[in-house]
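ok so I'm stuck.
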Amino acid sequence: MVQTELTPRHIQLPSDLSYLPRIEGIVDNLTVEFDLPEGIAANVYMALTEAVKNAIVFGNHSNHDLPVDIFIQRDDKEVSVIVEDQGKGFDFSAIPDPTAPENIQKITGRGIFFMKNLADKVEFSKNGTSVKLTFNL
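replied:
not stuck anymore, here's the structure
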């Protein structure tokens, strides 16, 4: 399965980490199409990479038969990117703080923290199988 553009604002990727480099091209296209400032484009790239990686690894458990869907929206005030996986979800209200002393040495657990610091707004829905990253323009 290869990256498929279903509509100009819907992209589907296989649950395979080897597809993560394609996010750079997706963000490059958004930057041109939406005339995104460089700083916002960099934040979109880093946050989207984390969201897709989480969807592949934790949501779809790297099952190549399960896609990751990316939906992109823009209006005059913001750009929103929604990433959805096909997993069972998770309790997004119980995410441990990676900056807490007991978590500081852990290798994982920083992706959502990074997303929250890069995006202006992060919203989980569909039992945690969908994350919406919003960036103010």
